Amino acid sequence: xxRQAVDGPKRAATMGTMSQQPAxxxxxxxxxxxxxxxxxxxxADSAAYLLPQLRPxxxxxxxxxxxxxxxxxxxxxxxxxxxxxxxxxxxxLEEVERLAAARGLVNLATSVGDVYGFDFPDSSFDVVHxxxxxxxxxxxxxxxxxxxxxxxxxxxxxxxxGDYAAMSWYPDEPLLERWRxxxxxxxxxxxxxPDAGRRLLGWAHAAGLRExxxxxxxxxxxxxERRGWWAETWAQRTERSALASRALELGLARAxxxxxxxxxxxxWAAHPDAWFCVPHGEILARP
Length: 287
Fold this sequence. Notes:
Layout (H helix, E strand, L loop, with lengths): L9 E2 L20 H7 L4 H4 L13 E4 L5 H10 L4 E5 L2 H13 L5 E5 L12 E7 L8 H10 L1 E12 L5 E3 L3 H16 L10 H7 L3 E12 L2 H17 L1 H9 L4 H16 L4 E12 L1
Parallel strand pairs: 1-4, 2-3, 2-5, 3-4, 5-6
Antiparallel strand pairs: 6-9, 7-9, 8-9
Helix pairs in contact: 1-8, 6-9, 6-10, 8-9, 8-10
C-alpha cells in the first residue's frame, strides 16, 4: 500500500486483508453518553506518557480512535507528519474528520479497520498508539503483535488501559460496588478484560515487544464539577448504553437495579467529600 496523501482529512482506502480473529463486542457501545465522555479526552490527560517521544514529521497510527479528540492532539504535535485515525465504526470516523477540519489539520487521514489485521505494510508507522482499546479485546496479545508489525524499527508501540478492579471511591456506596460487579461481568461475557491495566506489561512481553517501559497514571474526579460530570455520564451509561442492554440480556441485572445504580451515582456525586480515582496501566515498547 502506498503512503497516503495528506492534503486534507480523508478516509483511507482499505486493502481487504482482515485477520481471522473475531471482532468482539464493544462493552460500552456508541450511545451518546459514551461518546460524550470520550470527547473530553486529550493527549495531555490520556497520553502524557507518550508525549515526550513525539517529534514533528513522525507518522502515527491511532488505533480505536473513537471521536478523535486525542488523535487531533497527536496530529498537531507531529505535523507535518501524517496521523491515521483507525476505528471500525465509520460514523465515528466522520466525527474525527469534522474535528480535524475544525482544527485546520491537513495531516490527518481516517481508515475503517480492524485491530487484528491492519491494511498497512510492515513498518509503516513511527508510533502506533491505542488508548482504552486492549481492555475490550478477546485477543489483546494478537492485537499488540499486529501493532508491532506495522511499527518501524526504532519506533514505539504505546498503550494505556484502565483497571476496573483497582478503581476506588469515597464515600462507600454499595450500589457502586454492584455497578462494578455488573460491568466486569458484562465485559468478561463479551470476551474482554476489564482489569487490563495491570496486565499490559505481561501482554507486551507475550507479544514479543522489546525495551518495554511500564508506567501508570490516574484520572481523579474530586472537585464538584468533575465528579458531577463523571457520575452523570456513568448514570446514563448504566441505564441506556450497550452496557445496560447487555446486562439485561445476560440476566446479570434487572432494569430496576440499573436504575438504582444510576441514582446511586448521582447521590454519590452530591456528597461534598466525594472522590473517585481511575488508575491506568501504560506501556511504551519497541517493536
